[in-house]
Structure formats: C-alpha cells, structure tokens
Write a structure and sequence with these properties.
By secondary structure, the protein is of the alpha/beta class. It is about 40% helix and about 10% strand. The chain is globular.
C-alpha cells in the first residue's frame, strides 16, 4: 500500500507498528514515520520536511529506527511507539 501511495505523493506513515517495522515502511518508500503518540508539533514538522523533499522520523521513534537498522532491518524486537 505504501509503495502504491508513493507513486502519487510522499507518504507519512502513522501506525502502532505492531505488524510492520519502521525500516520496512521506508523500504516501501514512506518518506516519514510517526507513532500513535507523536506530538502534534512533531507531525507538523514532519509534514513540512516531507513536503520539502526530505525524510522524517519523529523523535519518539528515532531510537527504535536505529535499533531496526542495527539489526539489518529485522522487524523483531520490542515494539515501542
């Protein structure tokens, strides 16, 4: 689904991440990731960055994103969002 949406825009993915990992969302061409507890200000900043062609991971998910990258994109492990 993310790949399909990315063909017409720059998707910002928001979910509890219980089935799909952050790295998997990025591989599917998401341009940003936020969690269900992300502050409204952080969502606004993410939208601004993405609209400018950048990539954004909300501050609450940066640690988890780094952990997934360190595991080579493995989606197993602690799910915190």
């Amino acid at each position: 689904m993310i790949s399909l949406v990315s063909s017409v825009g720059r998707p910002l993915v928001s979910a509890g991440w219980q089935q799909t990992g952050l790295v998997a969302a990025v591989r599917a061409e998401a341009r940003g990731c936020v969690g269900h507890r992300t502050e409204q200000q952080d969502i606004g900043e993410a939208l601004h960055v993405i609209a400018g062609g950048g990539f954004s991971v909300c501050p609450r998910l940066v640690g988890r994103f780094r952990e997934e990258l360190a595991r080579g994109g493995d989606e197993s492990g602690d799910r915190r969002s």
